[in-house]
Design goal:
272 residues; mainly alpha; Helix Hairpins
């Protein structure tokens, strides 16, 4: 059974941030300097889940919780809010956004038919909470601080909510071919670098759309592709080493032969 709780972590962070007796590294940090670590820890949580490593997941969740406590401590020092305010805000939000689970002051619940209906209700709650602030676009409030592939996904989903969407992934393949052709045109004509960046951006945006409409998690698909590449490339290195060689210095054609062998082994179900 765990012997420490959140109060212990709050005290530890306060001690680390103490200007006189704390850790010099922790003391000099600010919101901007810590933000990249927060993002990194969230990804490491996802990685532990993907690997099914629950001991690691426990540790990574602790690292992520530390990030929340770190930000809250800096906010408290600046007089903005404290950790308790963070907890209170999320509790209030969860209760407000789940009127089918938590009754109102009169004890009434708002029924919801299924998960799809709840998702729609959730988005409506968020829309009302955001307000307009002069921006009444259906795209209002989508953060620019998230990974761009995720922002692309959210933009597409919001546009889809008003019917601006394909109903099937197949037409997206035609759009993808069109965008690739435009990239090829820019490359073949030695196009301006900004134009090439623009056209490649269109390709990536369409790829997110294709994954969404095919009901594929874009992040999981790319993560799988990364793992496949790493696995096969490492096998290439092993095959080359078995011949007393390294990949460095070999032609692309020679390297491709190792790649084809690694790919064939994998497809045949052979263990390296």
């Amino acid at each position: 059974m765990a012997e420490r709780g959140i109060d212990d972590l709050l005290r530890i962070m306060a001690r680390l941030r103490d200007p006189q007796h704390g850790c010099p590294w922790d003391v000099k940090q600010n919101f901007a300097s810590i933000a990249p670590y927060t993002i990194e820890e969230a990804y490491e949580v996802a990685d532990a889940i993907d690997r099914g490593d629950y001991d690691d997941l426990r540790d990574e969740l602790g690292d992520l919780l530390l990030q929340v406590v770190f930000h809250a401590r800096m906010a408290e020092e600046a007089g903005h809010f404290a950790f308790g305010d963070v907890v209170d805000a999320i509790c209030t939000k969860m209760i407000r956004r789940h009127p089918h689970v938590f009754p109102d002051a009169a004890g009434n619940l708002q029924p919801v038919e299924n998960a799809a209906a709840q998702t729609a209700a959730w988005e409506e709650h968020k829309r009302r909470e955001r307000g307009t602030d002069g921006d009444d676009s259906v795209l209002a409030g989508i953060s620019s601080g998230m990974p761009e592939w995720l922002r692309a996904l959210k933009l597409q989903k919001r546009a889809s909510s008003v019917g601006f969407d394909w109903s099937d992934p197949r037409p997206v393949l035609d759009k993808l071919a069109e965008e690739i052709a435009e990239v090829r045109h820019e490359l073949d004509t030695d196009g301006d670098h900004a134009r090439i960046v623009d056209e490649i951006g269109d390709v990536l945006f369409v790829c997110v759309n294709l994954a969404r409409l095919a009901n594929v998690d874009y992040s999981a698909a790319l993560r799988g592709a990364n793992a496949k590449f790493e696995r096969r490339f490492r096998r290439m290195e092993t095959l080359a080493a078995a011949e007393g060689k390294t990949l460095a210095g070999q032609s692309l054609e020679q390297q491709d032969r190792y790649w084809d062998r690694a790919k064939a082994e994998e497809k045949a179900g052979l263990k390296p």
